Amino acid sequence: VQLLRCPPFSMRLLDLTLPAPAENLALDEALLEAAEAGTGDETLRFWEAPVPFVVLGYSNRRDAEVNVAACEANRVPVLR
Hints:
About 35% of the residues lie in helices and about 20% in strands. It has about 80 residues and is of the alpha/beta class. It is elongated and about 50 Å long.
């Protein structure tokens, strides 16, 4: 894990990949919520997915946006 302060901004660099896609998305959500609430520093985060996966936005409909059968056949998780 590498945290850097980038002058003259108060932004931190977070180079951190967690083991599972859902964990990475949860951390991104927590960082966003903290930034929106003004309780956290601005953060630039880099991570690489350890496995292929599909991410749906809140307004997307799974059956309309994703080939569910193909994802299931290939064990590709569909996350929101």
